[in-house]
């Protein structure tokens, strides 16, 4: 009898306030560590559960130690201080070794049963990045859900190039892609933007979100606004390009209007002494300033892309032999 080699999956969980919810999340994941079959018939197994301690206010560290002592598949990653969810997720990705990486929250709203369908979607659509697509409202307040949707629409309309409505913390990423992002991304980079730099194809898989565990949210209004602003700043340099184009346009308009004023003064349409010279000086100087700001914006755009760590290229393995390729078969005795 033959059996396709199982896909190995590393599950990365950033832990900030998970003392009460983390044990049940890990128990569900451990049930998949012995191996499982996806709805499309692909063999897979959770090879490791990477718990990244992000120095929350509860006793999550003690819970992580207990889970690591109880389950061989649990691997703790200890950060030196609190760095935030995206940085903790990147640290977990860098520390993982699976062909695939699944990221999920600590609060229990992400059902591990969705991992199999997400893997099927990745293989069916040949997509190295698959986001969960909730079929029900997120288990937050209606105001927070409304603000989240509105913020994503603002980013899409102003910056373009990113379909931010797809962004979700429950995601499946090809391991080599995720580890490349963790190597390149700089401090403060919005994780999903960075993943979009290297993933040529992005897909979604429907999931049903569960209620959050009995614990307060780790996000307040200030942190949510900071989250949104970081997404704006790292989503590209389109706003700088707008400054550049506006500077060039205003400089051109200033020169044209200055010429018009000179001609009007010569033909006698303007009779006030000195007014034409003053307006021409203001228009030309303002145009020069705006053109200079445009040039500075272009240089800033280059510097920003370099500072964010956006890679010029990323080398991956042969797609036919990687996690998206067909599984080699091996003999197995019953």
UniProtKB/TrEMBL annotation:
Glycosyltransferase 2-like domain: residues covered: 10-132
Membrane-crossing residue ranges in chain numbering: 239-263, 275-300
Keyword Membrane included in the entry's annotation: yes
Transferase as UniProt keyword: yes
InterPro entries cross-referenced by the UniProt entry: Glyco_trans_2-like, Glycosyltransferase_2, Nucleotide-diphossugar_trans
Family the UniProt entry places it in: Belongs to the glycosyltransferase 2 family.
Protein name, UniProt field: Glycosyltransferase family 2 protein
Organism whose genome encodes this protein: Nocardioides humi
